[in-house]
Structures are given as C-alpha cells and as structure tokens.
Amino acid sequence: MHLLSGGRLRMPRHIYYPDAADGEWFAMPVSCALFRHTQGNALFDTGCHPNAAIDGETRWGNHARYSEPIFNPEDAVISQLAATGLIADHIDLVICSHLHYDHCGCNVFFTRATVICHAKELEAAQASDAIPMGYLREDWDTEQTIQAIHGEHDVFGDGRLTLIPLPGHTPGSIGAHAVLDRSGAFLLASDAAPVEASLRQRYAPSNTVDVDQYLTSLNVIAQHERDGATLLFGHDDAQWRQLRTGVDGYD
C-alpha cells in the first residue's frame, strides 16, 4: 500500500470542527492509496484534477470558493504515481470512496481501469441536484466501465482488500479495509471519518447529507479499530504528516 497525494485544499475550519471560530480556515490533505496485488493494481480515490491547481474556479465553479486548491499540478495523483514506478496504464481498478470532485478528479487519466463505486453513489451523481451537492460530471463520468456495488465487496476474492459501505457523508460512501503481510490491517475511511476528532467526539461534519447514517458508520469504523485495524482518516493533516507516503509504502 502506497499513500499518495491527491492535492491539498484550504477550507473553512467549522466544516470539520464545529467549535471553530467564524472565519477560521485550515489546510487539509487529499489522500489516495495504491494497492499492489498479484491480481492487479488498485487505486483508492484519485484526488483532485491537476487543472484545479491552476484555476480552481474554472474547474470546480463555486465549490472552489470554500474548498480552495492550494497545491501544484504535480501534487495530483497522476504525477505522484511515478514515485511507485507505475504509470496510469498500469492501474487496473479505480475505487471511488465517493464521487465528489476532490476524490475522483483524476479518474479520466486511468483509461484502462474499471471504476468501482457504490450504486447509491452513482445514483446521487446522476440526480438533478448533483452539481450543488459536489458531483461534477467531467470528473466522475469519464467513459470507463463502472462496476456499481451494493454491499461489502471483496475486490480480489481473498480478503486482502474489502470495500465497506459507510454512508452518511454521501449516500454511497465506502471505505476500504486492507490486510497487509507485515503492517497488518488498515481501514481507509475517506470522508466517512475525514478527521480523527469526528470519530473520537462522535459528531457529523456540516457537509454530511445524513447525520444518522454518518454516526452509524462511525460505529462501524470504531469496531474495525477495536478489531485491530489502523484507521486512516480522509483529510486529517496531523495524521497525514506522520504517515509514510509516496515511495515509502506499507507492506
């Protein structure tokens, strides 16, 4: 497992930390994860499109006003992949935790890959209110084959990488449970638990579409931690700075 940069954003702090003062902003990472398996290479989330770093408002419209890109184009995952010795054509599967623009922005580059997402997420991205809800068609509808899943999904059929429904942030948010030989189990929570404080204090960020589902998903995440999994939060800057990223992967 290689943890790769998918960009970096500046956002109002109160979205993820409800006690934050009005007008306070914070910087947060956008993370992606590459899984190298004997059956193929899978990328969990593809982060932001590199063009967002050049002109966020042209790429994302009004969304760029409260999720300001503060990264360089080379910080997008399509460039970061080179650190692992791979190129876009080496990716067999793109797994989307959900279909917001900062999580599937580089899907378009992985033309050989099958895209996996939850069926409810695909439905939300196709709804009439999709754009204001953060679904931009040029990011998620990129002509690859889409495999829509419903419940838990064992990606390679051997328990090494299992996708788990974690709805709440969006209707079809999913996490990834990975089991590595030496480093053990990890649960990649994405925006089902974007920052550690949300889990520890059991609150839903303000960009949650269903609070009850979100809090239930936090319970699922906490159970995986009790079972021994290391939790990886979707946008927690303090955790990101302590992780091995890029070429320094986890075995």
Word description of this protein:
This protein is α/β, with parallel strands linked by helices and 251 residues long. It has one domain (2-240): Ribonuclease Z/Hydroxyacylglutathione hydrolase-like (Metallo-beta-lactamase, Chain A), CATH 3.60.15.10. Helix content is 20%, strand content 27%. It contains 8 helices and 12 strands. It has helices at 51-54, 56-60, 77-80, 119-125, 137-140, 196-201, 211-226, 237-240, and strands at 2-12, 25-37, 40-44, 68-69, 93-95, 114-118, 146-149, 153-154, 161-165, 174-180, 184-190, 230-233. The protein has a 7-stranded mixed β-sheet with strand order 4-1-2-3-5-6-7. A 5-stranded mixed β-sheet has the order 8-9-10-11-12, covered by helices on one side. Strand 8 and strand 9 form a beta hairpin. The longest helix has 16 residues, at 211-226. The chain starts with a strand and ends in an 11-residue tail after the last helix.
CATH topology: Metallo-beta-lactamase, Chain A
Main β-sheet, in a few words? 7 strands, mixed
Strand order of the largest sheet: 4-1-2-3-5-6-7
CATH superfamily: Ribonuclease Z/Hydroxyacylglutathione hydrolase-like
Rg, alpha carbons:
16 Å
- In CATH, what is the class? Alpha Beta
> Please, what is the average pLDDT?
97
Helix segment count?
A: 8
| Tally of separate domains | 1
Which residues sit in consecutive blocks of at least 5 with pLDDT less than 50? none
Please estimate the helix content: 10-25%
**Residue fraction in strands:** 25-35%
